[in-house]
Amino acid sequence: MTIVAALLVLPTVAFSQTHYTPVEDGKYEAYMNFTGQVVEDGQPVNGAEVAMFVAGECRQTQVSHNISGNDLQGNPYSIDGLVTSYMAWGQSHKENITFKVYMPNGEERELAAFCPLVVDSRTGMPSEPFILDVNDLAHNVVMDFRREGNAIIGTYSTGTDGNQFPSTATFTYDGLTIEAKDTKLTDLNVNYISESNGLRVAPGATVTFTAPAGYMIIGAWALSKAHELTLDKTGAKFYYEGWTGCAKSITLMNSTTSMNSFYGIEVRYKKVLIGDVNRDGKISIADVTALVNIILGKDSVEPYVYDHDAADVNTDNKISIADVTALVNIILGKQQ
Fold this sequence. Notes:
Layout: H1 2-14, E1 29-40, E2 43-44, E3 49-54, E4 57-63, E5 65-70, E6 76-89, E7 95-102, E8 108-117, E9 122-123, E10 130-133, E11 139-144, E12 168-173, E13 176-181, E14 192-194, E15 198-201, E16 206-210, E17 215-224, E18 229-231, E19 243-247, E20 249-254, E21 260-262, E22 264-271, H2 285-295, E23 300-301, E24 304-305, H3 308-311, H4 321-331
Parallel strand pairs: 1-9, 1-10
Antiparallel strand pairs: 1-2, 1-6, 3-4, 3-7, 5-6, 7-8, 11-22, 12-13, 13-16, 14-15, 15-21, 16-20, 17-19, 17-22, 18-20, 23-24
Helix pairs in contact: 2-4
C-alpha cells in the first residue's frame, strides 16, 4: 500500500508548477506546438519548471518530465527532460519565445535559447526536441516605452513640450546602456518619449543599445511600430525580422524625413568569453581546433558542444578563416 501511494503521489509533486504564473487561459489562441528538452552538461533534466516568455509575458509553463510510449513501428521509447506545449500567439508582428528555468534545486536560470513563435507551426518533437541548455545563459530585456513602469524615468529634459531630449541623451536600463543621438534637423523634429507614441525618433537620429562589460548582444526585436528604423548591422528594416548575431552594440537609425514611433524593443545579451569556442572556460589551441571544425561544418566533437557566439572572434557576424587568425592572435597575446 505504501509503495502504491508513493507511485501515485510522486508524479503530482514532480509536475507541480509554482514558480511562474502564465497568462490566463483563453487570453490568446494557441497555434504553435512546441517540444523542448531540458539538458545540463548534455544530460536530460527532469523536474525543472520551464517558463516560456513572449515580449516579457509568461505564456506557458511546464515541468520537464519523462515521456514513454511506442513509436509508429511499435518500438518502445523513453525520453527524459521533455516539455510540450501549445504556445499562445499574441501580437501581429513576428515574436520570439524566450525561456526561464526553475531548477529542481531552486535555482533560476534565464536561457540564451530562443525560437520564433510562428502561427500553425511545430518546433521540435519527442524524437528531435528543441534543446534548452541550462548552462547556456542570457539576459532578456524588454523595454516598452509607452508604459510608465517601463519608460526610462529621468530621461525627460527641458524643451518646448517639456520632454524633449537634448542633442544626446544616455541612460541605462536593466544593464543596457542606451544612447539617443539627435541631429536636430528642425526645431520640431527631436527625440522624445511619450506614453502614447513611445520613443519618437527624429529624422537622421540614432538609438544605440550597448551590452554591459563582458557581455555581447545576441538578439534584438522591435515590440511594434519601428517600420522606418534601419539596423547598422544589416542595413535592413528592423520591424519584422529583428536581428540575431553577436555584437557589443547595435544602432537603429531613422533614415527617413519624418518622425518614427518606436514603441519598444526586446534585447538579449549573454556573457561571452570570445574565443572560448569549446566552452571549457579558457582560451587555448583547442579552441582553434574547435573553430576550424565549425568552419568545416562540425558543430560538436565529444565531449564539446561548440559556442558559435564565441567563435565569431572578430565580431563581424560570420564565422570564417579570419576568426581563426584573430583567435591565434589572442592566444599569442597580440591585439585583434
